[in-house]
Specification:
With about 190 residues, the protein is mainly α. It has helices at about 5-25, 35-50, 55-70, 75-85, 90-100, 105-110, 120-130, 135-145, 150-160, 165-175, 180-190. The relative contact order is 0.06.
Length: about 190
């Protein structure tokens, strides 16, 4: 055996052993604890309730969950705090607020599900947000959530002055804009 070959084999073996030792030193993360029989029964009930829902209801719930997951963490925290405040209200006041929300149009309800920062602007942004390809939805919402109120106001006006045939291009250009230059870009677009 050539000395260089033997040296290379030993070096390779040392690397493999080093990686194995590193892996063995890593803390082992235990998976979730097994469910108790009572927890399994509750889970079965929830699954059965979900499967009993009509497809339209399940789709709406998925959309709501997707909207929640796309909210920035600070807005999620603020909404959790609001939910806790709501839970402390007397039942009749909660019911009145639910009736008031249910009286909103589906479009208005959808807008408020985008969070308290975008909800007020949704009627003006609807033409830009309503028909977004799935691949652009998350980047668009991240961009919108990062925008200042002045930028959202300008964008709302820009959306309505842009013909429907140009809104896809507007949305794609908006997503590409860096945050620092977005206000200037919007002002330039308004002057066109």
């Amino acid at each position: 055996m050539r000395p260089d070959f033997a040296k290379t084999c030993l070096l390779g073996l040392a690397c493999v052993l080093s990686c194995a030792m590193w892996l063995l030193a890593m803390p082992v993360r235990a998976g979730p604890a097994p469910l108790t029989p009572a927890q399994r029964e509750v889970l079965r009930g929830r699954i059965a309730a979900w499967e009993a829902l009509p497809p339209a209801s399940r789709n709406e719930m998925r959309r709501q969950m997707q909207s929640w997951l796309l909210l920035p963490p600070l807005q999620q925290a603020a909404l959790r705090a609001s939910a806790a405040d709501f839970a402390r209200l007397p039942p009749e006041q909660q019911a009145a607020m639910r009736v008031k929300f249910a009286a909103l149009t589906a479009e208005q309800q959808h807008g408020w599900r985008l969070g308290p920062d975008l909800g007020p602007y949704y009627p003006r942004l609807h033409p830009l947000i309503a028909y977004v390809p799935p691949a652009e939805r998350a980047p668009l919402l991240q961009t919108l959530h990062a925008m200042a109120p002045q930028e959202l106001e300008l964008l709302g006006r820009l959306v309505f002055s842009t013909p429907p045939s140009g809104r896809d291009a507007l949305r794609q250009a908006l997503i590409r804009q860096p945050g620092a230059g977005r206000l200037h870009w919007l002002m330039v677009q308004m002057e066109r």
